[in-house]
Amino acid sequence: MPGTASSPQHPSSSPFGRRAALGLGIGAAAALTLPAQRASAAPVVGGARLGAAGVQVRRGAGVPKPPGLRARAWLVADNDSGEVLASFNAHKALAPASTLKMLFADTVLPKFAATDRHRVTAEDLAGIPYGSSLVGVQAGTTYTVHQLWQGVFLRSGNDAVHVLAHMNGGVEQTVAQMQARAKDLQAEDTHVVSPDGFDHKGQLSSAYDLTLFARAGLKNDDFRGYCATRVADFPAGGSKTFQIQNTDRLLTGQGVAPYQGLIGVKNGYTTNAGNTFTGAATRDGRTLLVTVMHPGSGAEVYEETAALLDWGFRAGGRAGAVGELVVPLSERPKESASPVAGAPAASSGGSAEGREGWALGGSAVVAALAGGSLVALRRRRRPTGRRRA
């Protein structure tokens, strides 16, 4: 994500002579490009290793090797501490499908009471992308906010998403608020185009960002309750209802073995995005978060998630962190003067982060010396198919 330049050769007459000063000035001027190039590359949110190639893991004694997976990106983290225990392409920007609804819920869920009621209009349902997953919201029927959120979480209903977005001031305003929420969460890989996660050009997120959304959402009791609900009765007009089932197959056991201790969170699928899933599970008082993006079949996304959860629970507290899930900007102490998220802390050790910090500092010294030499010179010389989300 710096080129090098050698200092020109010069005679060894007087070390402080005009030609020596000229040599130092030119060499230092070339060195000045080094910090400028480093500074232009933003620090990796959560830590440098999360931006590195290949599987990232610290295997101490008794820590098993992570499973071999086909997913294009994945991440395992401890929900309580925020430590990232292992990852692969954590910051790779990919189409998120309906897992983006976690960010929608993070943004909109706190704005309405569960008991609020809304009579749906045809305008509320306008603009839903063709081929969307639907829960069956009908114009002219009155729904509670609680029922609409059940439609979002259980059936990934884009109709329920659009109704809630219109209640929130419209799709455009909701998208802007979701992008602002992503910025607050430091989810820098995420670009929101629609609130439902459907296939839209430029709609992107990453395994890291989706895990941030899940962690933030699980702090809300309503979010946690909805994503853990297996079945619910949904209005069908008048006094009639029909049953809806959660599409999270690790939760319900449909086609795959249900995962012991699973508490959610959200699955997704579109033709272009493929399968995505973020899951959370608790065992022995420990909660892990796993995100898997773009493996093969629909069953495979759940199988790979279960394999990563198994690995995380077996590793226990023995696997060292390769990064962290950062704290939202709005939750950081105001007096904190900490640098940009993911920037390496000062270190006297020989880590890569420490070496990079030394390089920046060393270049700054060279720059200062170069500035003095160039000033001296100036004083001596005058210048001259089917899709769902």
TrEMBL record:
The keyword Ion transport does not apply. Residues 65-293 form the Peptidase S11 D-alanyl-D-alanine carboxypeptidase A N-terminal domain. The lineage of its organism: Bacteria, Bacillati, Actinomycetota, Actinomycetes, Kitasatosporales. Residues 331-355 are annotated as: Disordered. It holds the Pfam family Peptidase_S11. It comes from the Bacteria. It comes from Streptomyces tabacisoli. Residues 336-350 have a biased composition (Low complexity). This is Serine hydrolase. GO terms for biological process: proteolysis. Gene3D superfamilies: DD-peptidase/beta-lactamase superfamily. GO terms for molecular function: serine-type D-Ala-D-Ala carboxypeptidase activity. InterPro entries: Beta-lactam/transpept-like (IPR012338), Peptidase_S11_N (IPR001967), TAT_signal (IPR006311). Keywords: Hydrolase, Membrane, Transmembrane, Transmembrane helix. The keyword Transmembrane applies. The chain crosses the membrane at residues 357-377.
